[in-house]
Design goal:
The chain is an alpha/beta fold and 556 residues long. Helices cover 38% and strands 19% of the residues.
């Protein structure tokens, strides 16, 4: 007789932090992609117009990816006025007629495509990427202009709305193609953007004017309808502003593709002329290699070999300055030079001191020591001399502190590394895989050091110091302030205060917080890193110009 199975069912497998993070990223991305929501999308369709992302899909070559940039711009910002998903505009790089183009498309489902402060900054960053990499640009214009309740935050400063037109003109002077298609509203100062492009396309039913009918009536008392004031037919036949008038979105997008196919192809960057056949990288799940919370040690060489062609990596000074790993490889056939934070614990041999022989010390992975800074600075100079793009894999706690480190000249040696990073003339790409704290962010080519592209994994943490350290420091400051005010907090008050400070800081450590403010260009999944890196190199390859490498005063 068979006995019933009374054993407990097997426990379900434990979900990993990576699974939770990647699912949340996918969900949040879908939320952003919805723009102003289904009702706003339907209103766009009722006008016989496509949404921004629908336009981009029709514009791109069939089957080719769209590498969206700054997806999370404006994330959880402007909540008091309903938010601004993706900054009210969609930007990214995609192939049109076999060539990478930067695409900048207003999302009319978000406040009629109006420019918020983050919108201007996002468009400026997209234009800057195009300028630095000589990428041709398509603007899909459908915007109500500046969001007037915030005009003081959008209009006047150096990196505000006016910078968009400045970059228009600078790209034109550099011979970088720009095509604009007006596919809805284009009003006020925003009207200059398409008119400053090489080619201007406009769809019937769209409007292009410095002031709309209501403002014209208020300003000068003139009554005029939208079509006579700034319609496609008027601009095509009377004002002569429009180069091509098209009946609808689909026709305008076909026209862009036809024109793009005629543009001359410029020279490639010097490094791209040494491109070879792409070899596959060793297959590896990078979420198995790199822990999500930074507590797991790993050898960054394993990460590098998973990203490069054939897993072949030529390491520079492998036994010296081991908390930074440097070396040459190929990715997608392109030569590249890696600077990466090592995350293993290292037993370091030291020069002999009072006793004979060598002494040793333990060095912590993710920390930059003096010899590591020396090595990386020298390697960066070599990469510039060789004309090879630099790729920084950033998982950094910061520079080493303490008496021994100060006496070894950590400030002087760190300054040398920062100098080399600052004055680099080859393309620089940064990928933040974990922590990016303090001055380590600077040494590893953070946003202030003009990377051509800056990507972050969902595990990235971006701040002046780690969460626990910052929470304790901030809490100590607040406790001191309370005591000066005559309040003596008890243990419960201290715990509550710590939790409040820690919660706020943890929110600010999240990569979405950084992405919302454009401190990173995109949050990417770890296993997409190689493909995104190769396509970023392809974008960098469009600029044939390389400046002379000079470092000025160099600490030795």
């Amino acid at each position: 007789m068979t006995q019933p199975d009374t054993s407990a069912p097997p426990a379900p497998p434990t979900r990993s932090a990576w699974q939770d993070a990647l699912e949340r990223l996918a969900t949040d991305r879908l939320t952003v992609h919805a723009g102003g929501g289904s009702k706003a999308q339907q209103r766009q369709h009722d006008k016989n117009r496509l949404t921004a992302r629908e336009r981009i899909r029709q514009l791109l070559d069939d089957g080719m990816p769209f590498d969206e940039l700054m997806t999370f711009a404006g994330w959880e910002m402007y909540q008091d006025v309903g938010g601004c998903p993706s900054g009210g505009t969609v930007t990214g790089i995609g192939q049109i007629q076999g060539r990478p183009w930067m695409i900048i498309a207003n999302d009319a489902t978000v406040k009629a495509g109006a420019f918020f402060p983050i919108t201007a900054k996002k468009v400026i960053r997209a234009q800057t990427i195009a300028l630095e990499n000589h990428l041709p640009v398509v603007y899909l214009v459908d915007s109500a202009g500046v969001y007037l309740p915030m005009q003081d935050e959008i209009f006047p400063d150096q990196d505000d709305f006016g910078r968009v037109f400045y970059l228009n003109a600078r790209m034109s002077a550099r011979g970088i193609p720009q095509i604009a298609a007006i596919m809805g509203n284009c009003v006020a100062g925003g009207a200059y953007l398409p008119v400053m492009c090489d080619t201007l396309i406009m769809t019937e039913g769209s409007g292009l004017y410095l002031a709309g009918p209501a403002l014209v009536k208020a300003a000068i008392g003139q009554v005029v309808d939208s079509e006579d004031l700034g319609g496609a037919s008027m601009h095509a036949s009377i004002a002569g502003t429009v180069d091509y008038k098209e009946p609808d979105d689909a026709a305008a997008l076909r026209r862009i593709r036809a024109l793009a196919d005629l543009y001359a192809q410029g020279e490639s960057a010097p490094f791209a002329r040494r491109r070879k056949e792409t070899l596959p990288a060793p297959e590896r799940d990078l979420t198995d290699l790199v822990g999500f919370d930074g507590s797991k040690t790993y050898d960054v060489r394993d990460l590098i070999t998973a990203l490069v062609d054939g897993g072949e990596f030529h390491e520079f000074k492998a036994e010296y300055g081991e908390t930074l790993v440097c070396g040459f490889a190929r990715a997608g056939g392109y030569p590249v030079a890696f600077v990466a934070n090592q995350r293993t614990v290292i037993k370091k041999k030291l020069k002999s001191g009072g006793e004979p022989g060598l002494r040793t010390r333990i060095e912590v992975g993710g920390v930059i020591y003096g010899d590591s800074a020396d090595k990386a600075a020298r390697f960066i100079m070599d990469a510039n001399q060789a004309g090879v793009p630099l790729v920084f894999l950033s998982d950094v706690t910061g520079f080493m502190v303490g008496r021994d480190s100060e006496q070894e000249g950590i400030i002087r040696r760190g300054a040398k590394l920062v100098n080399a990073v600052s004055n680099t003339v080859v393309p620089k790409i940064t990928i933040i895989t974990g922590g990016s704290f303090g001055a380590g962010n600077y040494a590893m080519n953070g946003k202030a050091y003009a990377p051509r592209f800056l990507f972050a994994w969902p595990s990235a943490k971006y701040a002046v110091m780690s969460g626990n350290a910052a929470a304790k420091t901030l809490m100590d400051i607040q406790l001191a302030a309370l005591k000066r005010a005559g309040t003596e907090p008890d243990d419960e008050d201290i715990l509550r205060l710590y939790d409040e400070v820690k919660s706020k800081y943890d929110t600010e450590l999240d990569p979405r917080y950084a992405a919302a403010r454009l401190w990173v260009d995109e949050i990417i999944e770890p296993n997409d890193t190689r493909d995104r890196l190769i396509r970023a190199l392809e974008a960098c390859a469009q600029n044939p110009h390389q400046d002379e490498f000079r470092v000025g005063v160099f600490q030795v």
